[in-house]
Design brief:
Elements (H helix, E strand, L loop, with lengths): L1 E2 H4 L13 E2 L4 E3 L9 E14 L2 E19 L3 E14 L3 H9 L4 E7 L4 E4 L2 H18 L6 H11 L3 H7 L2 H6 L6 E3 L3 E8 L8 E13 L4 E10 L1 H19 L13 E11 L4 E12 L2 E11 L1
Parallel strand pairs: 1-10
Antiparallel strand pairs: 2-3, 3-9, 4-5, 4-15, 5-6, 6-7, 7-8, 10-11, 11-12, 12-13, 13-14, 14-15
Length: 305
């Protein structure tokens, strides 16, 4: 098996917009060929399900629109705005309803390299201040609800720093750019070990990733790439137990012993249809987490308008 890290060394840029599909050797190369001021709009829908023994216990659905604009283009990078709008949420969770109401018209500016590989959130301070202002309003509005300030405080942690925002607050961007910057050969699987951010605040998790080119469509100048990611279950279980221990102390709720803690697993599947220009046409990510007899499924669809 080839290593993903190695294939990132074999690219050459081409000025031909349609050079990403090379049918002679059945390869696809994911590079962003974007012009300054170019813009695309996407519909994003996220479904969250909680399942036990085949029964769906709860379901939440969130949808919104994001306008992606190429703000600047240089020889080695792109500066890109993601403008969020038109949130619609279907849930019984009043906190989540209020959070997304306050997040209307949020703009996140990111930088990619010249290939379209996600590098950083540029305006992270603005994003942090925007969300902290929103959560401050929530604390005041929901102060009568027991422990709500602690729950909101955990949410604030996701936006507390540049690293935290990039690790946990821009998952749709990580999905959007997940295949950019690499060249793939049809019929081959690429495997790699990698480190993933630990949103509980501890050491990064080990994960095994497999990527493959599933379909080539030269007539339409697009292709389909797929990825499967498995997080180390032992590390995830230990981190979950430590987090729940801290939470139980704060909120004064009982907790299982470490010996009684069931294994926690996390699998992620991504499939994306990408145009030769580097714009995503359609992408679906499915996250499945199993713990204590429950299965949590989160499915996010990104579709060009």
């Amino acid at each position: 098996m080839k290593k993903i890290a190695l294939i990132c060394l074999i690219f050459t840029l081409s000025i031909n917009l349609f050079a990403q599909l090379i049918m002679d050797d059945s390869t696809a190369q994911v590079i962003g060929y974007w012009d300054k001021n170019e813009k695309q709009s996407y519909s994003i829908t996220t479904d969250k399900l909680k399942i036990k023994e085949g029964d769906t216990l709860s379901r939440e659905q969130l949808s919104y629109t994001v306008d992606i604009t190429i703000v600047d283009s240089t020889a080695d990078s792109y500066l890109i705005d993601w403008m969020y709008r038109d949130y619609k949420i279907n849930t019984d969770n009043e906190l989540m309803k209020k959070v997304f109401t306050l997040a209307q018209d949020l703009k996140v500016t990111i930088r990619t390299n010249e290939l379209g590989v996600f590098q950083e959130v540029v305006n992270w301070r603005e994003v942090r201040d925007y969300m902290l202002k929103a959560t401050t309003l929530l604390k005041a509005e929901m102060k009568e609800i027991p422990n709500m300030d602690k729950i909101i405080g955990h949410m604030e942690g996701i936006y507390s720093s540049k690293e935290a925002i990039e690790a946990g607050a821009v998952n749709e961007m990580q999905q959007f750019y997940s295949f950019h910057g690499a060249k793939y050969v049809y019929g081959e699987e690429y495997e790699s070990e990698m480190k993933l951010p630990n949103l509980y605040g501890g050491e990064p998790f080990d994960a095994h990733v497999t990527v493959w080119l599933d379909e080539l469509n030269p007539d339409d100048n697009n292709f389909i790439l797929r990825m499967h990611q498995v997080v180390n279950p032992e590390q995830l279980t230990n981190a979950t137990f430590e987090y729940m221990s801290k939470l139980s102390e704060t909120m004064q709720i009982p907790l299982l012993t470490k010996e009684g803690m069931p294994e926690v697993s996390n699998n992620i599947w991504v499939a994306s249809r990408i145009h030769g220009s580097g714009w995503v046409v359609y992408s679906i990510e499915t996250r499945e987490t199993k713990a204590q007899g429950y299965t949590n499924v989160e499915e996010r669809v990104i579709e060009i308008n």
